[in-house]
Structures are given as C-alpha cells and as structure tokens.
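Exercise: predict the fold of this chain.
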Amino acid sequence: MNDAANVTLTLLHTNDLHSHFEQTSRIAGYFAQVRSQVDPEKLITVDCGDFIDRAMMETEGTKGALNRAIIEYIGYDAVTLGNNEGLSYTSWELDELFHGMPIPFVCANMMLKDTGQCPSWMVPTLRLEKSGVRIGLIGLTAPYNDYYELLGWNAADPLTILEAEVNLMRSEVDVLILLSHLGLRQDENIAASIEGIDIILGGHTHHLLEVPMQVGRTAICAAGKFGEYVGHLQLELNSDRKLIGISGGSLSTASLPRLPEMDELIGRYRVQAKRNLNRLIANLAEPIELRYNQESPLPTLLACAIRQLTTAEIGLVNAGQFLEQLPSGPVTEELIHAICPSPINACNVKLSGSSIVRSLEESLLPEFQELAFRGFGFRGKVLGMLCVDGLEIMADLDQEPYHRILDIKVNGVPLDEKRQYSVGTLDMFTFGVGYIGLKEGHDVRYYLPEFIRDVMATALNDQALIKSCRTPRWRFADQQ
C-alpha cells in the first residue's frame, strides 16, 4: 500500500437544530471556517433532519422560508427529512417551500401518496465523489403513518427500504453513509443487523455521541440537539479507497463565534415574520386567565374547542400548553403563537371511564402538574393540570392521592368506569407522555394539519365558548 495515496475526507454533520437560530449562526461560522481550511473536494456536509421547528416565530412567520435560506447559505451537500419538517407542513406545502432547491433532501422511505414517487426536491439516495472517493448517502425518517397519510405521504418501513438500498449501492461506492432520523435505538439495531453501512449519522432522539459509537463494523455518530454541538469527523481511506479509520466526534458550539452574515439574514427574515404575523385574530373585552395548578379559563377554552372540533363527549387538555394568559385587547397571530408555540394537533380517542378517572386523579398531584419535559411536540414549561369540557367533577383534596375524586358526571350522567368514551384531546398523549391514564386511548383519529393554536384562534371568535370557559367544571369539597 502506498501511504502517499491515502485520502482523508472531512465530514461535518448536524441534526435536530429545531430552528435554534443563534446556535445555527455559530454552526454556519464553523462550517465557513472549515471550508477556508479544507479542499472542497475533501469536504462533505450533511444535516440529519428536524432543521425546522414551527415553535420559533421566525419559522412560523415565514412558513419555513428562513430555514430554507439557511440551508442554502450553509451549503450542505444533502439534508434528510425529519418529522418536524414532515409533520409540520402538508406535502404540498413542503413542495411549495422546497421547489427548485439546489440542495437535495435525501430520504428513501417517503413517497407522495398521490404518485408513489418522491417530490422533485427529494431523492431516495445520493452519490457523491470527493477526491476520487465514491460516497453513497441513504436517508431515512421515522414513519409516523397515522399522520403522514393525512398530510399526503406514504411512509414505508425504513428497515425494509434500507436493506434494498444497501444491496443496490454497496458495490458501487467506497463509503456508505446512512442519514438517519430514526433515533439511537433504531440506529444501533441497524448497525447490528444490516451489513455494509460504514457510518450512521443520527438524530430524532436528540442523543449526543461525543465520539463515534462502534457497533460491529459501523460507526454511529450524532450531535445532540438545538445546535449545541456540531459533528466533525475525519475519514481516512487507503490507496484502494477502503475506509481504514474514522476519528473526531461532536464539538460544543458554545464558544464558537456567530457569523455576522448569518445574523443579518436571520434579522431580515425576522422582520418579515413579524409583519406576516401581525394579522388580527380577535379583540378580547376581558383577559382569559391561566394557572397551571388549578382549573383556569384559557385551557378550558381549548378543551371546549377541541371537544367541539372532534365531536367528542369529553374534552381533556393540559394547562401547560400555554406559556402566558391572554390579555384583554387585540390578539394577533403573533401573540397566539407566542403563548401557544407547540406544534400539537387535536385528536379523538376512545378511553375507558377508569382511565379517565385515573388521569383526573393524576392531574391533582404536584408531580404531574409540575412535570417539566420537552418533546412529542410539547414546547411548554410544565405539564399542568387537566382542564375539561363535558365533565362535572367533585373532589376532596384532603383525601389520599388517587382517592380524591368523589363524583364525575359526563354531560349530566354519572361516569361509568367500564364504558368507553370518545375524548377530544391532544396528540402528544397518544405517544405515552404526560398523564399515564391517557396512554390507554385507542381508535385514534388525528385532526391535521391545524395545530391547537389554530383551533384557539377560531375559538376566540366564539362568544358562547368564551362565556362557557369561565364556568367551573371542577368543584371541591371545601367549596361547599
């Protein structure tokens, strides 16, 4: 072997940036710095999905146009589709956003429902050549089929698709890389069960691997979340173009300088976003209050609106969906987005009476009310108490936990713990997060593409619902 003919490639990778623009500016600066030091024929740059997050005003107000502009400015070789891209917009909205984009989305397990083909801006796989090294990229994303079918997609099983693509590509490339938005557990499973993949660049579960994890002959790498880290790898190939070494890992971006040109770009789009979100939604005569540890009108209004939308017997939502109460006066689209940024949808589920009782009991406990978490679309501070519609509840807080609810009526009729009820609630509960009792739902129907803030915008112009949300559904023994 001739050592002089060895080739070292630099691979920069990101994942799960979620529209964290300050950190993205630091990453853009780092990419620019590396580009100034590395021959472009020896540099590969990729992103592994969830670049977009509609919880951020700049993304919401530009319908993702800022995110596209950043992808193009950074100049990735390829990006893959994350669930925050695929579930935040319909397939036709994404087609409008990414039409004509010079940087390809690489995703092998997503096809348009109407055509069975990839959209014009997406390819299943991509082949690059850098310094004579043939590089194959395969993209995969988590197949949330119950959602994707409603948004115009068919999401195939990623492992079945992957095996077929590896068989097609392996003999034609020197390095085979999987851009995975499947999560660490699935990445480990792939590395252990599918031969021929050299590197898995991962995302979705926000896992940080400061150095590559070796599983069999596959190196798994990931750079955490929110742009707090950036992946920087060195790939060494011998004169036969065989991969003989992978070094590097994930670097903290905390001390990296921001790129002024990127900040200027973000600033221009921010002005545009604020202008676009200045649309008047409603004008409130009185504030609509919010409390996390007790029943309050704002989340109760959402429970009413979701029950009405889903034509359910009961409405159940957590108070923590809101960051602030609504003041009296004009309510703009920007204000609604600011107090309810979570990209969460309504759904109708079937729940037993006993599961409903358990959930309500849980919602009286501080460990649930004060539970802080992030993910599954939730962008609030804490979980908060359950607020309801269609129920009248009598409780005694002096009793032992899980024995505090004395009586429940469903639309005036005593609740039957053995009966199945239709419940309008939030999709995040169907993923098993939050209230344990709500994990038991079945026969789920999701309501897309509207987010709960869109449902609220409609409700704020329904005077009957606004009046109703101030009527208590919860009563307590010490109030008698």
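Check your answer against the key: The longest strand covers residues 243-252.
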